[in-house]
């Protein structure tokens, strides 16, 4: 990226995604944050501006690689959502490519019973 740009590439993609999608209490937004060491997922109600549920690598007991851990985080989030009565979500990849850990988390959430 050239010096002096206001937003990074991921920030521009993230903003264009957020213009089109929003979460409600019936169908919250499943957003993903990926750091170098961990992955975090939240269900957010944008009308109220509140996080309904959250899950991260710290919530699961997985000893595999980061992709396997991401799948477990997705399953854990789906389990929490089912307990809260949420079955449908809107997926927000937060500017990341739908590949690797982000895709793995989405697959785990689908296996756990979330629809998106």
UniProtKB/TrEMBL annotation:
<comment type="function">
    <text>This is one of the proteins that bind and probably mediate the attachment of the 5S RNA into the large ribosomal subunit, where it forms part of the central protuberance.</text>
</comment>
<dbReference type="GO" id="GO:0008097">
    <property type="term" value="F:5S rRNA binding"/>
</dbReference>
<dbReference type="GO" id="GO:0006412">
    <property type="term" value="P:translation"/>
</dbReference>
<keyword id="KW-0687">Ribonucleoprotein</keyword>
<dbReference type="InterPro" id="IPR057268">
    <property type="entry name" value="Ribosomal_L18"/>
</dbReference>
<dbReference type="GO" id="GO:0022625">
    <property type="term" value="C:cytosolic large ribosomal subunit"/>
</dbReference>
<comment type="subunit">
    <text>Part of the 50S ribosomal subunit; part of the 5S rRNA/L5/L18/L25 subcomplex. Contacts the 5S and 23S rRNAs.</text>
</comment>
<keyword id="KW-0689">Ribosomal protein</keyword>
<dbReference type="GO" id="GO:0003735">
    <property type="term" value="F:structural constituent of ribosome"/>
</dbReference>
<protein>
    <recommendedName>
        <fullName>Large ribosomal subunit protein uL18</fullName>
    </recommendedName>
</protein>
<dbReference type="InterPro" id="IPR004389">
    <property type="entry name" value="Ribosomal_uL18_bac-type"/>
</dbReference>
<dbReference type="Pfam" id="PF00861">
    <property type="entry name" value="Ribosomal_L18p"/>
</dbReference>
<keyword id="KW-0699">rRNA-binding</keyword>
<keyword id="KW-0694">RNA-binding</keyword>
<comment type="similarity">
    <text>Belongs to the universal ribosomal protein uL18 family.</text>
</comment>
<dbReference type="InterPro" id="IPR005484">
    <property type="entry name" value="Ribosomal_uL18_bac/plant/anim"/>
</dbReference>
């Amino acid at each position: 990226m050239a010096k002096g740009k206001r937003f990074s590439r991921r920030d521009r993609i993230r903003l264009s995604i957020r213009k089109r999608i929003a979460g409600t209490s019936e169908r919250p937004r499943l957003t993903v944050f990926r750091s170098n060491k961990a992955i975090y997922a939240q269900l957010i109600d944008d009308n109220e501006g509140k996080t309904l549920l959250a899950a991260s690598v710290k919530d699961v007991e997985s000893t595999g690689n980061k992709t396997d851990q991401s799948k477990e985080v997705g399953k854990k989030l789906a389990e929490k959502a089912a307990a809260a009565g949420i079955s449908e979500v809107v997926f927000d990849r937060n500017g990341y490519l739908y590949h690797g850990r982000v895709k793995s988390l989405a697959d785990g959430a689908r296996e756990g019973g979330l629809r998106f």
